[in-house]
Amino acid sequence: MRKLTYFIACSLDGFIGDPEGDATEMYRFVDEEFTEFLTAHYPETISTPGRRALGLDHLENKRFDTVVQGRGSYDVALKEGITSPYAHLRQYVASRGLTESPDPQVELITDDLIGKIRELKAERGGLDIYLCGGAQLAGALFGEVDELVVKSYPFAYGTGMPMFASASGVREFGLDEVRAFGNGVVVRTYGRKR
Ligand SMILES: NC(=O)c1ccc[n+]([C@@H]2O[C@H](COP(=O)([O-])OP(=O)(O)OC[C@H]3O[C@@H](n4cnc5c(N)ncnc54)[C@H](OP(=O)(O)O)[C@@H]3O)[C@@H](O)[C@H]2O)c1
């Protein structure tokens, strides 16, 4: 089975953005050392414009071949005029409101979200599935997350957008790996215990 991995940037107090979801406060921690780590291990999680700016267009995908995001997260790119933010991946955007995809490379998931995710997970071969966010989509997929990669940045919001919105129940994860960086960023990888 292909894994659904929620690969997410968080503050120390566990928020993925300010109360409106704005995560720009985190960008300053993506320094040279951390960019090297992302480039070496997760190059496909860097957006198409980011890869182009860094001269990384040519890099092969290492962990993921598919990305799933909610329309709220997709809108962040769309507002910048970017309709295909992860052109190097198979892209899905969950939305009940959109009727037509803004880009031929982006497929909409409009109903049976969990069924579609299970279908993607059951595909043979290939790499894993990158759950990009945001909070609402991750909440809707709370029970489907197989792996968490939490990039903790060394600051607190006090209040903000949670990792999972409107999710309930307890899911247990086991710690697989910890990586610490000079600027205080810590990346923890957890596998779901079943
Ligand atoms: N820190 C990070 O690493 C990180 C990563 C990603 C995003 N973010 C932040 O997260 C924020 C967005 O998060 P968000 O929680 O507001 O929005 P979101 O989860 O990205 O998207 C929510 C939208 O997804 C659609 N959706 C949700 N559940 C669905 C279902 N079961 N079936 C079909 N469609 C479904 C709905 O779209 P419709 O309204 O169109 O129906 C819903 O409004 C952004 O501001 C972004 O900056 C942070």
Automatic annotation (TrEMBL):
InterPro entries: DHFR-like_dom_sf, RibDG_C, Riboflavin_Biosynth_HTPR
GO biological processes: riboflavin biosynthetic process
Cross-referenced Gene3D superfamilies: Dihydrofolate Reductase, subunit A (3.40.430.10)
Molecular function, one GO term: 5-amino-6-(5-phosphoribosylamino)uracil reductase activity
Domain of life: Bacteria
One Pfam family this sequence matches: RibD_C
All copies of domain Bacterial bifunctional deaminase-reductase C-terminal, residue ranges: 2-187
Designated name of the protein: Bacterial bifunctional deaminase-reductase C-terminal domain-containing protein
Organismal lineage: Bacteria, Bacillati, Actinomycetota, Actinomycetes, Kitasatosporales
